[in-house]
Specification:
Helix content: 25-40%
Distance between the termini: 35 Å
Largest sheet: 6 strands, parallel
Number of strands: 10
Number of domains: 1
CATH superfamily: NAD(P)-binding Rossmann-like Domain
Strand content: 15-25%
Number of helices: 5
Order of helices and strands: EHEEHEHEHEEEEHE
CATH architecture: 3-Layer(aba) Sandwich
CATH class: Alpha Beta
């Protein structure tokens, strides 16, 4: 039974991802601040209670997993402090360092449709979204831009998925593109299926696909 690690398992995406990983037969490690928020736990799940910024706990959560799936992200508000920004960036850098040292290379994470790769040319719709996000969540955009740059420069087999708004139910088909903005929302079930499929799929290695339900 392959083991994966899920970071951010108590959120909307993380809870859905955990349930589907269990259903697919994975052994799962989760790092959470409050284990009482977890749903549907089974013997397949190993819970590590702690903070993402705690390097010791993060190292423990990464060990022996064939893939790391992260839904971690700062809140979409301007209440994120400069210290928070530093902590998020440092944790991503530490995770990359530990994974490379452990010869663990598959990392699948989430940012957003307004986040950019180094030297990426944005179509107009994404430019407008980025402007809007910076108005309400400038620090969050800074964090996710820097995290993506760290991944881009790393030796990991990373995939950074960039969705628009994530909702519990969105009617339509799942769409994916390297650069184009395809819709205003994505269905969480379609998103988490895509994340789990990408563990073994090599289509989006070292890329940051834009996804949506349309």
């Amino acid at each position: 039974m392959n083991q994966i690690t899920i970071l951010g398992a108590t959120g909307l995406v993380g809870n859905n991802l955990l349930a589907k990983a269990i259903g697919r037969g994975y052994k799962v490690k989760v790092l959470v601040r409050n284990s009482h928020k977890l749903k549907g736990l089974t013997p397949q799940v190993e819970v590590i209670e702690g903070n993402y910024f705690d390097k010791g706990k993060l190292k423990q959560a990464l060990e022996d997993s064939v893939a790391i799936l992260s839904t971690i992200g700062p809140p979409l508000s301007n209440g994120v402090t400069a210290t928070d920004e530093t902590n998020y960036i440092n944790s991503m850098a530490y995770m990359i360092e530990q994974m490379e040292a452990n010869h663990q290379f598959r990392l699948i994470s989430i940012s957003g449709a307004g986040i950019v790769l180094p030297n990426e040319n944005l179509p107009l719709a994404r430019k407008l979204m980025r402007v809007m996000l910076k108005t309400t969540s400038r620090t969050t955009v800074n964090i996710k831009d820097k995290e993506l740059k760290l991944l881009f420069e790393s030796g990991l087999n990373w995939t950074n998925i960039r969705p628009p708004m994530i909702k519990e139910v969105v009617d339509g088909a799942f769409t994916v593109d390297e650069n184009k903005f395809l819709g205003m929302a994505v269905d969480v079930n379609q998103l988490t299926d895509f994340m789990l499929d990408e563990i073994d799929n090599k289509r989006w290695l070292k890329k940051a696909p834009i996804v949506a339900t349309k």
